[in-house]
Amino acid sequence: MNANILIVEDEKDISDILSLQLKNKGHNVTVIADGAEALEQIQNNDHQTDLYILDRMLPGTSGLEICKFLRMFKKTKAMPILMITAMTRPEDIIEGLDAGADDYITKPFDTTILMARVRALLRRAEVLQSNAEGIENSLLTVNKLKVDTNQCKAWIEERELDLTLSEYKLLVSFLKQPGKVLTRNQLVEYIQDGPVHVTDRTIDTHIFGLRKKLKDYAKLIETIRGIGYRVAAES
After folding, report:
1. Whole-angstrom Cα distance, residue 27 to residue 85?
2. What is the model's pLDDT at position 139?
3. Which of 219, 192, 214, 188 minimizes the C-alpha distance to 201?
4. CA 220 to each of CA 8, 89, 123, 152, 155: distance values in angstroms, whole numbers, following the listed order
5. Domains of the chain
6. Per-residue pLDDT for 151 more than 90?
7. Are the C-beta atoms of residues 170 and 191 closer than 8 Å to each other?
8. How many CB atoms lie within 10 A of CB 176?
9. Contact 97, 86 (CB under 8 A)
10. For residue range 72-99, what is the model confidence (pLDDT) as tens digits?
């Protein structure tokens, strides 16, 4: 997939390396060094951008604020976002993911790992597009997992899963965003229902129950230590 990629990074050495690596893979790359300028470009951009790579700390407007805007702006709310940050504490990474980033990489980084993250996010975008095109039959399929949101039923291969409502909601949230790391805070929001109080600890309990019912396929739900969970997009 030859993608249109916007890099927002104020350190020229880093943006040059990223741009060169991505162009060598056939991608079209635009680089902006100022956060405020990037916001203006995003709002006035008529062509499709397939992936946003954002530094967290930028002049003008922070990468965190750009990320939040991308998730609110109709044209970009479903587009993949990779955040680059020198802030390595779990709470900083969680803040970026809660703001809407799909993945993160910390500085200094290995370019081969970064390119792997880029490929994963572009694959995820293709899966989401496929799911969107198939929304009429309401089937979500990733790896060996399948959910029919009309019937509220789920399967692993051909075996139907006997899920609680919370387990079902968690599985749907994963399959709607395959490959995306979902923080515990985000998962709490997905399964919160009226007066029912859901905590981080409750999420871990539901994940344990869901994995138990997946049996041999429990590893499809990956733990991102200190942050949350995800179902990996198909390779």
Report:
1. 22
2. 84
3. 188
4. 32, 26, 17, 20, 13
5. 4-128 (3.40.50.2300), 136-231 (1.10.10.10)
6. no
7. yes
8. 18
9. no
10. 888 888 889 999 988 888 888 888 888 8
